[in-house]
Design a protein that fits this description.
The chain is built from 45 helices and 27 strands. The protein is of the alpha/beta class and 1121 residues long. Helix 10 links the parallel strand 6 and strand 7. The chain is globular. The N and C termini lie far apart (84 Å). About 10% of the residues have low confidence. One of its GO terms (biological process) is DNA recombination.
Length: 1121
């Protein structure tokens, strides 16, 4: 017999089940009560809730509905008549097997290679899996060779499926997929009288919109021999009767014996009837269209049902905006349900306090993800402090993209202060494959496509669980990294490998030639580089290097071996032990690695077992990698959910479970709802079923159900970028619709009461957060206990002009001893004030051990080797030495490109340096003198020495500096400081700075008074900037240089020039694929995490103050690169 219950609260369901179990115990005490669900979350929640009510739940089994149907199938149908279900994972392998046959090979002609064919067939296989779950009526019609589609891609899928079924029938008549198995089961129980031993007299079934209609009806069919208690979740307590339902009074499941026809008929009718139907409640019309499907479905299976609804009645205790909204939704009405209640019991003060400022629904708009999580943390602490009946397990945090929030949640929730530490559990259904063990294993599997780039090889070797396998330690790995870089190893194994990828075999950057250079260097063991057999020794080795080098050569030999093995296609049986062998060769055996490697091997075995049907079909490693990754992702991670912690999960989980507090993160337009790209091949996008679970409507319905199941507080937040040059993230349509609805409710209240002292502005659910520090003023309702420590979050004050007003105060904060500034420190500061602040005031420094050089281009020289080459050519030219030795050393050591490219590159650099040499050809070793100085500027002494030209007829400059490279901004700042000191000491000549590619800086001479004035200004800036960073950036200098009109010697007011200068600023700030942007600098990013108009103004102001004098006193427009 079937007992139908409609409900909107699982707590009521638990109470009802407990009542049935207590009042009507099973006849056989050895049999278990069975509860059927369709999700792991509901299963765990029921276990937890039933144990609280009943105490002992050992005799209660909570099963997934699919597993129960399969179990019944085996019990009811005799073995001789049973069909064998084919697993859905085997569809792809069947299709690959059939791909060589003519009937399917015709469709695959256009694909160029086997991997493209695999991707297409894999997509078709995934679609078939979807049809098996959501449209078994199609599958059964195709089994009968019935065509009912018209479009080409639809007909193609029909034909492929029919070929597949025919092949399976020819192999074994009893093989079938789940829809046929289900149909066979329904037919059998319709014809026979069933009596099952060891089964309970009743089953409790919990149905939701996500439940498969076919699975539900399959269980309902068992009502002949089992009592079925169906609890179906619907949001509203609505009773619709349609013209269609009045005509068809009899139960469809009784009237039509054919199960699939029944479902197809049902879907078709619902689609036609719910087009013009509407709810009374506005939010139900927006988000609850799937309610119609549920209502009609329940009407069809039974005319009699019991309502178990929580109507969220409004009274003294729970008069909140949240309850008001939920009550309207459940009762499907728009009127203000507390209207009459307000007449009797509420005065003006109470209305304002209890209705308008209840904080049951809040929207928080933040400027970054970090601030969004800090606001979340502070809100939760406030809830704990002010609601003693709310505990961590009563709270859920959800997001459609939860992974981007996890690092911040882990850091902020695990606060060092115990009062601020919040316990939480991250619920991931899928196993996280983004870790080093998974990444390294799949990099090893991809060795067939690996070109042996230096970074790729050392990514593997730097991993402790790999280098320990080869008896190396961390220090030795660092040595090897340095040695291989000094040997100029970039990519390519040897000459044979270069031939395969159609590159010249004479390139000197391969591992073979680089290792030969290392071996020669060790054999010679001399500091001087020697050419032997067209190979240059790279560097000197110590005596302990041989042992480390031998271990490294073994590692390289293993990589070569596996590259060769994995490069060929193999039969499936030959792939069976490959995974185990790779793990044995490369991974150390310990608990941490074994945990993940076991998952990899399980996925490997599953892939091999499902692919065993294609015994003679050869597959390549790329296909195998894709399938192994799919199988790893298919493993469901079992999470212990109810452990007294806040739950952090994906948005589309836990929606039916009631929580006291729900917090939705990242509710922007792109994420809520997150819509997948349209799939042209997916037939369900053309023909949706009544209860199809992959629709836009379902995502809206999930939001509605989440709102209904929130008991006390419903929080929404999203971050909105404050950058003036970025597109601002807009809020989700869900938020817009909810805001409008709340305003509508408030409007009803105002119309009724017509209070003068209550305005719309008094009620707000929006809160804006643009500061990292969350204090009382910036976050509503923060208490002393919830205030985040300002010492840990406080940022340094950025330099402003107001700091110049009190000189005594500035000098008293001096970071130097005895009021002495050394010229080296002074110049170093003005080269990069931000870097100086972090290094000398905060004592933070980042050593760049690994310099990123080009590994991908064999026909050009990277910037580091170009600098070394220029420097050596420059020194040789100054000493009039021949350059042949330099060319040979750079060529055979792999620092120059291949053959003619290397020759052209060398001659080009030689010409560049020649131009610099020609400009300084008049200089001799005795042309310079050192000026030692000790300038007093106010109460500060600037001390040091500078190089100046001696007074001669052919010396037209005071300071002459030169570099064998292109001049940069930091060179110009250094040059300007030296020139000011030269003029302050009485120098009267101009100065010049010479670089390659005709880059030059010319400066006019300044009189002594003017130069000392500027030095005072820069000394004062040094003192301030040592403790509070000055925003003098490269992007700002490019902006000012572009806008500066040298002819008028002032900043241009031309609109086009101003716009061009701003574009230049953003270009330098953001960078491009060839050049790193200034925003990516570690120290700049720490100081300016996001760019906004105020920061840009400060940058422009500082640039004018410190860089404008250089532009004014230069001969011509400065050429900045």
């Amino acid at each position: 017999m079937l007992f139908l219950y409609k409900t909107n609260d699982l707590n009521i369901v638990v109470n009802t089940i407990c009542t049935h179990i207590k009042k009507n115990p099973l006849d056989n005490p050895l049999t278990s009560e069975i509860i059927l669900v369709n999700s792991e979350e509901i299963k765990q929640w029921l276990n937890y809730s039933l144990s609280l009510k009943l105490g002992i739940t050992a005799n209660i089994k909570i099963l997934h509905i699919n597993s129960y149907i399969r179990k019944l199938y085996k019990c009811i149908i005799p073995k001789k008549k049973q069909l064998i279900e084919i697993k859905k994972d085997t569809i792809l392998w069947y299709l690959l097997l059939l791909s060589k046959k003519k009937n399917i090979a015709i469709f695959l002609k256009k694909f160029k290679n086997s991997f493209e064919k695999y991707l297409f067939l894999s997509h078709i296989a995934d679609l078939f899996k979807k049809y098996i779950k959501n449209r078994p009526d199609w599958i059964n019609e195709w089994d009968k060779k019935k065509h009912f589609f018209k479009l080409k891609n639809q007909i193609l899928q029909e034909k492929i499926w029919m070929f597949l079924i025919q092949h399976i029938k020819d192999t074994n008549d009893k093989l079938c997929f789940y829809p046929k198995l289900l149909r066979h089961y329904i037919r059998y129980i319709n014809k026979k009288k069933i009596h099952i031993l060891n089964f309970p007299n009743r089953v409790f079934l919990i149905g939701t919109v996500q439940s498969s209609i076919y699975d539900l009806l399959s269980v309902i069919k068992n009502k002949k021999f089992i009592d079925v208690y169906l609890f179906f979740f619907t949001v509203s307590n609505n009773q619709y009767t349609t013209h269609y339902q009045k005509k068809k009074k009899k139960n469809i499941s009784n009237k039509i014996s054919n199960f699939i026809k029944n479902c197809y008929f049902f879907n078709k009718k619902i689609k036609n009837t719910n087009k013009n139907l509407r709810f009374n409640n506005h939010l139900l019309n927006l988000w609850g269209q799937l309610e119609f499907n549920s209502i009609f479905f329940l009407k069809e299976i039974s005319n009699q049902y019991i309502n178990l609804y929580n109507t969220f009645s409004i009274n003294n205790k729970n008069t909140t905006i949240l309850n008001l909204i939920k009550s309207n939704i459940v009762l499907d009405r728009e009127k203000n349900v507390i209207k009459k209640y307000q007449k009797k019991n509420y005065n003006k003060r109470n209305v304002k306090k209890n209705i308008y400022i209840d904080n049951s629904i809040e929207i928080h708009i933040c400027s970054s993800i970090q601030i969004e999580v800090q606001v979340l943390h502070t809100n939760l602490l406030h809830i704990f402090n002010n609601n003693l009946d709310i505990f961590p397990h009563d709270i859920i945090i959800k997001s459609t993209n939860i992974n981007i929030y996890l690092p911040f949640i882990k850091t902020i929730f695990n606060s060092p202060e115990k009062k601020k530490c919040i316990p939480f559990i991250i619920v991931n259904k899928k196993i996280n494959t983004d870790n080093l063990i998974f990444n390294s294993f799949f990099k090893l599997l991809n060795l067939s496509k690996c070109n042996f780039f230096h970074n790729e090889i050392f990514f593997l070797l730097r991993l402790p669980f790999i280098y320990k396998k080869f008896l190396l330690n961390e220090q030795e790995v660092q040595w090897l990294d340095d040695w291989t870089k000094q040997s100029n190893i970039k990519w390519g194994i040897d000459q044979e490998h270069l031939k395969k990828i159609n590159l010249p075999i004479d390139i000197h950057n391969t591992w073979e030639k680089g290792i030969n250079r290392m071996i020669i260097s060790y054999s010679i063991n001399k500091k001087e580089q020697i050419l032997w057999n067209n190979i240059f020794s790279s560097h000197d080795f110590n005596l302990d290097a041989s042992n480390t080098l031998n271990k490294f050569l073994i590692f390289i030999s293993f990589l070569k071996k596996w590259k060769k093995k994995l490069s060929t296609s193999k039969k499936i049986k030959n792939w069976k032990l490959i995974g185990e062998n790779i793990i044995h060769d490369f991974y150390i055996n310990n608990e941490k690695t074994n945990k993940y490697l076991k998952l990899i091997l399980d996925a490997w075995k599953k892939t091999i077992n499902t692919a065993s049907i294609i015994k003679n079909y050869r597959i390549n490693i790329q296909l195998l990698i894709e399938e192994i990754l799919k199988n790893i992702n298919s493993f469901i991670k079992k999470n212990k959910i109810f452990t007294g912690s806040v739950i952090v999960s994906d948005f589309y989980s836990f929606e039916y479970i009631p929580y006291k507090v729900t917090y939705l993160l990242g509710c922007d337009e792109e994420s809520y709802p997150k819509i997948k790209d349209y799939d042209y091949f997916d037939l369900t996008s053309y023909y949706n079923t009544a209860m199809h679970t992959d629709t836009y409507e379902l995502k809206k319905y999930c939001f509605l159900v989440t709102l209904i199941n929130t008991q006390n507080f419903f929080f929404i937040s999203y971050f909105k970028s404050q950058c003036a040059y970025k597109n601002k993230t807009s809020k989700s349509p869900f938020i817009k619709e909810l805001e409008k609805y709340i305003q509508k409710i408030i409007k009803i209240n105002f119309n009724y009461f017509n209070y003068i002292n209550i305005k719309k502005e008094d009620f707000t659910i929006k809160h804006y957060h643009y500061s990292i520090i969350c204090d009382k003023n910036k976050l509503k309702k923060c208490s002393k206990h919830t205030k985040i420590s300002q010492k840990r979050l406080k940022k340094s004050e950025i330099y402003s002009d107001s700091n110049f007003n009190n000189k005594k105060k500035i000098y008293s904060r001096s970071v130097f001893n005895n009021n002495i500034i050394l010229i080296e420190n002074f110049i170093f500061f003005w080269k990069n004030p931000i870097f100086y602040f972090f290094k000398y005031y905060l004592h933070i420094s980042i050593s760049k051990i690994n310099v990123n050089v080009s590994e991908f281009e064999p026909f050009s020289i990277d910037y580091l080797n170009r600098y070394k080459l220029n420097d050596e050519i420059f020194n040789f030219k100054l000493k009039n030495k021949k350059l042949d030795t330099i060319f040979n050393r750079f060529l055979f050591s792999g620092q120059l490109p291949y053959k003619y490219f290397g020759e052209n590159c060398f001659s080009k650099q030689k010409e560049e340096i020649k131009n610099v040499i020609n400009k300084i050809s008049f200089l001799t070793p005795n042309s310079f003198k050192k000026n030692i100085f000790n300038l007093k500027i106010d109460n500060i002494f600037l001390k040091g020495k500078i190089k100046v030209l001696k007074e001669k007829k052919n010396h037209h400059f005071g300071i002459l500096c030169f570099k064998p490279s292109i001049l940069k901004l930091k060179d110009g700042m250094s040059f300007w400081i030296q020139h000011l000191i030269y003029c302050a000491l009485g120098g009267k000549k101009p100065s010049i700075l010479i670089g390659s590619k005709n880059s030059e800086w010319h400066l006019h001479s300044l009189n002594k008074t003017k130069s000392i004035y500027y030095l005072k200004k820069y000394v004062c800036g040094f003192v301030i900037g040592s403790k509070n960073p000055i925003l003098l950036t490269s992007s700002g200098m490019h902006w000012l240089n572009t806008m500066f009109d040298k002819k008028l010697n002032k900043i241009s007011s031309n609109k086009h020039i101003i716009e061009a200068s701003k574009e230049k600023f953003m270009q330098i700030w953001n960078g491009n694929q060839f050049q790193q942007g200034e925003k990516d600098d570690v120290f700049v990013h720490k100081l300016i995490p996001s760019l906004n108009e105020k920061i840009i103004e400060k940058i422009f102001k500082n640039t004018k103050k410190w860089f404008l004098p250089i532009l004014k006193y230069s001969y011509k427009k400065v050429n900045i690169r």
